[in-house]
Design goal:
By secondary structure, the chain is mostly beta strands. It is built from 1 helix and 15 strands, in the order E-E-E-E-E-E-E-E-E-E-E-E-E-E-E-H. A 4-stranded antiparallel beta sheet has the order 4-5-6-7, with no helix packed on it. It has a 4-stranded antiparallel beta sheet with strand order 8-9-10-11, with no helix packed on it. The protein has a 4-stranded antiparallel beta sheet with strand order 12-13-14-15. The two termini are 26 Å apart.
Length: 202
């Protein structure tokens, strides 16, 4: 958590469905987020103020043999499960992941269906959408500390497709302006890691 008192993590055994658990840093007072038998939860992310945890949920339908992916938030006590983005029909939510804005009022992610960088409110409504980033998107997105822009990863094919490289691009969070390239791909070389706030200041 932002205050360092709690941790949120994924727990599960082998191929069993995974769950989001929250506990004190000592490992005590663990609570699990309630989920159905066919739900697998992953990618917990604390809100900046520590009041909510964002996570993704995949639900397997044995009849269709397909999974649907959705995003929810929950309180640190495991209660008040709130949908953010739930597909209207069977299939995947269009985002690999969603990340909190610094003020906790917005979310951002790469929309693989439209190949755009989207900013959403906490009800899942798209507030802005930016296209024009060359290549195919990776899954990593990070906000600048002031919440004005985002840095995203886009994979670049440099011949043969066996060793794709990635570049970093900056887009304005309000959807205005042009896309700015931050790195130039070299075959087999990934962009700097980790995706941290120092990178976001580039």
């Amino acid at each position: 958590s932002p205050d360092g008192s709690r941790i949120a993590y994924v727990k599960g055994v082998s191929y069993d469905p995974t769950r989001i658990a929250i506990a004190a840093v000592s490992g005590s007072s663990e609570v699990e987020v309630a989920a159905g038998p066919n739900d697998s939860d992953s990618s917990p992310r604390w809100s900046p103020d520590g009041s909510r945890i964002l996570f993704s949920r995949s639900t397997y339908d044995s009849a269709t043999r397909r999974s649907t992916k959705a995003f929810y938030t929950v309180r640190p006590d495991g209660q008040s499960l709130t949908p953010v983005l739930v597909p209207a029909t069977s299939g995947q939510a269009q985002y690999y992941q969603l990340v909190w804005s610094p003020d906790g009022a917005r979310l951002a992610g790469v929309n693989w269906a439209t190949n755009t960088v989207d900013v959403l409110n906490l009800q899942g409504t798209v507030l802005s959408s930016t296209g024009g980033v060359p290549g195919s998107f990776g899954s990593r997105t990070v906000w600048s500390p002031d919440g004005k822009y985002l840095v995203v990863e886009a994979r670049q094919e440099l011949g043969g497709g066996h060793y794709p490289a990635s570049d970093l691009f900056r887009v304005n969070a309000d959807g205005s302006g042009s896309v700015t390239r931050l790195t130039t791909a070299v075959k087999g070389i990934r962009p700097p890691d980790p995706f941290d706030q120092d990178l976001a200041r580039a």
